[in-house]
Specification:
Blueprint lengths: L9 E5 L3 H12 L4 E5 L2 H10 L4 E5 L7 H11 L4 E5 L4 H10 L3 E4 L4 H21 L7 E4 L2 E4 L4 E3 L5 E3 L2 H12 L4 E2 L1 H9 L7 H14 L10 E4 L3 E4 L3 E2 L2 E2 L5
Parallel strand pairs: 1-2, 1-3, 3-4, 4-5
Antiparallel strand pairs: 6-7, 7-8, 8-9, 10-12, 11-12, 13-14
Helix pairs in contact: 3-4, 6-7, 6-8
Length: 250
Amino acid sequence: MHPPGPSVPQILIVDDDEGITELLRDYLARFGFQVHVACDGAAMHRQLADHAIDLLVLDLMLPGTDGLQLAREVRRSTAMPIIMLTARSHPYDRVLGLESGADDYMGKPFEPRELVARIQTVLRRAKGAQAASAPLHSNVVRFDGWELHRDDRCLISPAGLMVALSNAEFRLLFTFLQMPRRLFSRDQLMEQARGRAMESFDRSIDLLVSRLRQKLADDPREPKMIKTVRGAGYLFNVRSVQGQPAWQHG
């Protein structure tokens, strides 16, 4: 077999159910994907080392290291999109997955055609996010005395203190910084900050906004930086980004 060309997306499916992996390998191939499979974390890391994977489909329940921990390990070194497969449907479990770096969720059992649609959507959004982030190409983004270090995914406060960010907090803040002073609905934040199309879980995005406010020392009783627009969503109210007036970036 010839290696896939650069235009063929390579998908890695990590699931210990051989029936599912074989079904998906054959099914996804019909839609032009090059599919690799792994049954656990060790096999996943071998496949990632051997192939230029574009998207990871990761089961939550795996022998040994579970999907949440594997997602965290992958996210430490790459922004590769991750779709998590899980039988769990509680919003808290979804928040955990997002915090671990997942871009989308699918519950089991699922329709293979829906997975294809999710994969296509997440890959499109990943390419769009790369293009949209071009104006913020610097590793250090400065706003109102704060510094966001993209490589380290951490904040430096005006007082010079380092503030660690989770993956989800980083992506939420970066979404705000791309278009400051723009009103975002909860659905838009879910879609853009996570790079995923999904049903809205208001409490999930509210929780992440609350955590980011804490990191930014933004008083939740009277927030000055991340403002709540009742019934509409959130607005990132900063005066400047990278030394330019914020309205010029909107």
